[in-house]
From TrEMBL:
Record lineage: Bacteria, Bacillati, Bacillota, Clostridia, Eubacteriales
Keyword vocabulary terms for this entry: ATP-binding, DNA damage, DNA recombination, DNA repair, DNA-binding, Helicase, Hydrolase, Isomerase, Nucleotide-binding
Protein name in UniProt: ATP-dependent DNA helicase RecG
Entry EC number(s): 5.6.2.4
GO molecular function term, any single one: 3'-5' DNA helicase activity
Listed Pfam families: DEAD, Helicase_C, RecG_dom3_C, RecG_wedge
Originating organism: Ruminococcus difficilis
PANTHER family for this protein: ATP-DEPENDENT DNA HELICASE HOMOLOG RECG, CHLOROPLASTIC (PTHR47964)
Length: 680
């Protein structure tokens, strides 16, 4: 029996009540416990001299108890114990609260190891309630796990030890021997034992590297197999290239990158036996809409319909107006279908779509509802890919008989991550901006310059322009007083400097209908200043907006900041982005300085990956990828090796059916089991 079939209650001390706490962490079986890797480690052997400790830094010091423990009573019936320790370099005060055993645990004149965060006040350096152990026990590396209320780290350690003891003496390793030798990877048994309880730092690093490699390999295999499985025969062959005649109708010249993107799509739709499955990735303002319009025209002129799905009604309306203007002088019929239309309007629209009277249908999720049927769907397009998962994309494609699929993304992703996120897609990058698109000037200021910045916004409004102000929070939140929240900020502006200006507010807690209304008012210039959270990141195209001011800018990833900046500079007016932050962190100036230095989204994405790791790209699992246990996408070397290994294995056995790869196939199915990317 697999340990993934043995319930966690088989471990000693875990009854149904405690098992419920483990389940909150996603641990239901003994196998899950073994795969629940430590988030970090406490290395008691890595000590710092007391004379070198720094405030706010967690460290381990080796110190001799120099004073008896002095315990006093303080308010609320609590106790506080104080003592001092020293080494050859200095003294350090220790403070413990409500621990009546400290005086018997720490003996005067004895030397111990202490681990904790250092603080500094008028009495000097001190540690509050540090962990401690005898010097003879200080050569261990202790795992630290993510916890939930009711479970402490000692419970997790005990459960991990017992779970590991249940492993069979000989474990079948899912990685073939030649792969392990080629990439210098330890065996699975060594990795599992040393990732939880490493014998030393080298063993821990070897174990983690092996498990990270394996997890990235399994993810790569899954995404690549999805891509190969999508290569069914298509019933939609678009043989005649009509894009040149459409391009001639445009009042402007396309960039070479736009022409290349159109050419890639036409080649897919005309020459391949399988449907196009392509991502067009382009920075904000790079002209993806014109490329889509050309692809739609090509589809319609070959006798098929095209569907274009946008994430919000306001964006769908915007695209409908844009496409209607583009095709005004042609016989192409553009249709709009959204959830807010009346039942009668939707019924009539769907009738026209089903009988083939509509050529291009632009809409929201209403396009994938059961009641929407197409006559001859030839191409399915989704806008802002990171807002839709693979399943929604597949539902739209299911409206036709293997139609071509085109997806768009304005979120710049480093190429190494793009191969993972969009592993089931071919990728075209639009890396040029159309002529006349002006770069946004970006400035980084401290809060003491905020009033001056607000004065600049007021001047812009007086000149007829509009502005955004973005805050990290919706409303005041306990413990984060230093962060601006949109609700209070908007109120302060309405009562203060902008009392004579129309101020609107937009945030994620509002009902969709209310959000759409606010954005429509802003688009119509009925609101001059829009105070918002990041929900405006993917928003309506307001060409009159010229200033994006972002409070607590250090709290956002660079890619998010870049997306927000892309909301301005879309029209003829000079535009600006103002980043506000008082954070004195060592990389805040470096990160925000990148924003001031460049408007290139791909350069910014690469820097974001280096400085912040992959979290900004995968926050809230927005891309629908499986949840990983240990892998870190910023480890680009291991990522590249795993991609190379996946290619090698799939060349050897395209469906992983070879006996030596069955364990890998099983891990791949398990990894994808809880996502919308479920393997068939």
């Amino acid at each position: 029996m697999s340990l993934y079939e043995v319930p966690i209650t088989k471990l000693s001390g875990i009854g149904e009540k405690r098992a419920a706490l483990f389940r909150k962490l996603g641990i239901e079986t003994v196998g899950d416990m073994i795969s629940y890797y430590p988030r970090s480690y406490e290395n008691w052997s890595d000590t710092t001299d007391i004379g070198n400790v720094q405030p706010e830094e967690k460290c381990v010091v080796r110190g001799k108890v120099m004073t008896p423990v002095n315990t006093i009573r303080i308010s609320g019936g609590r106790t506080m114990a104080k003592l001092s320790i020293s080494d050859d370099t200095g003294y350090l005060n220790l403070v413990f609260f409500n621990n009546k055993y400290i005086s018997s645990m720490l003996r005067y004149g004895e030397t111990y190891l202490f681990m904790g965060k250092v603080a500094y006040d008028k009495y000097g350096y001190q540690m509050v309630s540090p962990e401690f152990c005898k010097v003879t026990e200080g050569d261990t590396i202790t795992p630290v796990y993510h916890l939930t209320a009711g479970l402490n780290n000692h419970m997790m350690i005990r459960a991990a030890k017992e779970a590991l003891s249940m492993l069979p003496q000989t474990i079948h390793d899912p990685l073939p021997d030649d792969i392990r030798k080629r990439y210098d990877l330890c065996n699975l048994s060594y990795a599992l034992n040393n990732v939880h309880f490493p014998t030393d730092l080298n063993a821990m690093e070897k174990a983690r590297h092996r498990l990270i490699f394996e997890e990235l390999l399994v993810l790569n295999l899954g995404m690549r197999m999805m891509k190969s499985q999508s290569h069914e025969q298509t019933a939609v062959h678009l043989l005649e290239d009509h894009t040149a005649e459409f391009i001639q109708t445009l009042p402007y010249e396309l960039t070479n990158a736009q022409k290349r993107a159109i050419s890639d799509c036409v080649a897919d739709m005309r020459d391949k036996p399988s449907p196009m499955n392509r991502l067009i990735q382009g920075d904000v303002g790079s002209g993806k809409t014109a490329v889509c319009a050309a692809v739609c025209y090509h589809t319609v002129k070959n006798g098929f319909q095209a569907a274009f799905m946008a994430p919000t009604e306001i964006l769908a309306q915007q695209h409908f107006e844009t496409f209607s203007a583009m095709f005004a002088d042609t016989d192409v019929r553009v249709e709009l279908l959204t959830g807010s239309m009346t039942a009668a309007e939707k019924r009539k629209t769907r009738e026209r779509i089903e009988c083939g009277e509509s050529d291009i249908v632009i809409g929201t999720h209403a396009l994938v509802s059961e009641s929407t049927a197409f006559c001859r769907l030839g191409c399915a397009i989704t806008d802002e890919q990171h807002r839709f998962g693979v399943a929604q994309r597949a539902r739209l494609a299911s409206k036709g008989e293997h139609p071509h699929v085109l997806v768009l993304s304005a979120t710049p992703i480093p190429r190494t991550l793009g191969l993972i996120i969009y592993g089931d897609l071919d990728i075209t990058v639009i890396d040029e901006l159309p002529p006349g698109r002006t770069e946004v000037d970006t400035f980084f200021i401290r809060t003491d310059k905020r009033d001056r910045a607000l004065g600049f916004l007021k001047k812009q409004v007086e000149e007829g322009r509009q502005c955004y102000i973005v805050c990290p929070l919706v409303e005041e939140s306990e413990g984060v007083d230093e962060l601006q929240n949109a609700t209070d900020y908007a109120a302060e502006l309405m009562l203060g400097p902008f009392r004579d200006i129309s101020v609107g507010i937009l945030h994620g807690k509002m009902k969709p209908k209310d959000k759409e209304k606010v954005m429509a008012q802003f688009a119509a210039n009925e609101i001059s200043i829009l105070v918002s959270t990041t929900v405006v990141e993917v928003g309506v195209d307001v060409k009159n907006a010229t200033v994006m001011m972002i409070e607590n800018a250090d709290r956002f990833g660079l890619s998010t900041l870049h997306q927000l900046r892309g909301r301005v500079g879309r029209g003829q007016y000079k535009s600006y982005c103002i980043l506000v932050s008082d954070n004195k962190g060592e990389n805040t100036e470096q990160r925000l300085g990148v924003m001031c230095r460049t408007n290139n989204g791909f350069e910014i994405a690469d820097m974001d990956l280096k400085l912040r790791g992959p979290g900004d790209f995968f926050g809230n699992r927005q891309h629908g990828l499986p949840q990983l246990d240990i892998a870190d996408f910023s480890d680009t070397e291991t990522l590249a090796q795993s991609q190379e290994a996946a290619q090698t294995l799939l060349r050897f056995s395209p469906d992983l059916s070879d006996g030596s790869l069955r364990a890998l196939r099983a891990k791949m199915r398990r990894l994808f089991a809880e996502t919308e990317n479920t393997m068939n």
